[in-house]
Amino acid sequence: MQFYRFRRSAVFGGFAALCIVVAGNDSMRGSNGDGKDRSLAVRQRIAFLPPPAAARTPAPSIDFEIVLEGGLAPTAAQEWIELFKGIDQSSVRIRNARGDDRPNIERQPLGNRTSYRVTGVVRANNMLLLPGGTFRVNDRAKLRQWIEKLQEGGDESITEKPGAFGLLAKQLIEVHEKLAVKIPFSTRGKSPREVGSLISRLISVEIVIEARAKEALQDTTPLEDELEGLAAGTALAAAMRPAGLVLVPEKPRGDAPRIRIVDVRDAEQSWPIGWPLNRPTTDTVPKLLEFLEVEIENTPLSDALPAIQERLGVPFLYDRNGLARAKVNLEETLVSLPGKRTYYAKLLDRVLAKPNLKWEVRKDELEQSFIWISPKR
To answer: Based on the domain organization, do 124 and 209 belong to the same domain?
Structure first.
């Protein structure tokens, strides 16, 4: 569709509350008094762990000023007062129009919390116009939803159109920044489940694992790619991909943005494994234009590509799912190139040509470059 913060143990379903122990933790060594390392037994009990719950900020107060245009019935003011009764707002004031009134939201500081002053206009047809909404005198539930939306997401949630994943720009930025944490441990040979558990300890985003995703994580092969040093968002997305899973950011009502881990078939869009560059590839990895003398003779791609990666000094990540669909086995695919002077970008093109693969430079949430290798479409 770093995983993220898990606020409630129930989120994990089959991942029991015992999953608070990390494999290899020194506290588990010799727990039976024999001095033996129990890390392998512990490893099977790893699950994604929640970060500490953040303190909730008090809901913003809202003061309404309702402006009545001319031509309304004498009972209009009382009808609108009745509508606002029982709705969570600080105050409501009703007055006659002055000629320059228009629907508006004004944010006002109030100590350590936010306050909003909302101006609404009741037209001659007895319809209330608020920014982003029109209401009748019997639309109490609808108005309550409007107020909750304002209190939860601020005036941007009313005036701004949601972007990717249905999130506002500031919410996307928040998720992106929380995923911009460097992975300090090796991932090659670890299971996606274990890597996800370790990443979840690094970040402050809640992660919810869907039922099908939980099942998929129970039976996975160890990761072949090394994700150490990459940002948590890119690393987590890459770790989940071999299991057929993706990350989907979402914003539950009344809560902070979080991440759902879902089966790729259940997601319309998902957090990518890296992002497109906003500048030329050779500016990001200038060594791609560096020349070298090279000759390759009947060498598996699984050996040739790591050798090129080491010389470039840039991580290589592979679309393992795509390679499997294209029936490309890097160990069995042999490449040969006659001795020739060339540059690294061209060398990659040539060694990937036979299995019909391509490469591109992407960046992670920390603006670090890596090379993504995948089948040509």
So the answer is: no
Spatial contact of 236 and 270, defined as CB atoms under 8 Å apart? no
What range defines the domain where residue 89 resides?
61-153
Same domain, 286 and 363: yes
Q: Which of 266, 292, 312 is the last residue of a domain?
A: 266
| Contact (Cβ atoms closer than 8 angstroms) between residue 168 and residue 162 | yes
What whole-number percentage of the chain has pLDDT above 70?
A: 84
DSSP states of 23-66 as a string? TT-GGGTTTTSS----HHHHHTT----PPPPPPPPPPPEEEEEE
Residue 107 is assigned to a structural domain of this protein: yes
Contact 270, 9 (CB under 8 A): no
Phi, psi of 118 (to 5 degrees): -110, 125
pTM of the shown model: 0.71
Q: Are residues 125 and 74 both part of a single domain?
A: yes
- Summarize pLDDT for 26-74 with one digit per residue, the tens: 333 333 444 443 332 333 333 454 555 555 567 788 999 999 998 899 8
CATH number for 328: 3.55.50.60
Residue 17: CB partners within 8 Å, gap ≥ 6? Answer: 9
Could you read off the pLDDT of 181-222 as tens digits, one per residue? 999 999 999 999 999 999 999 999 999 999 999 999 998 999
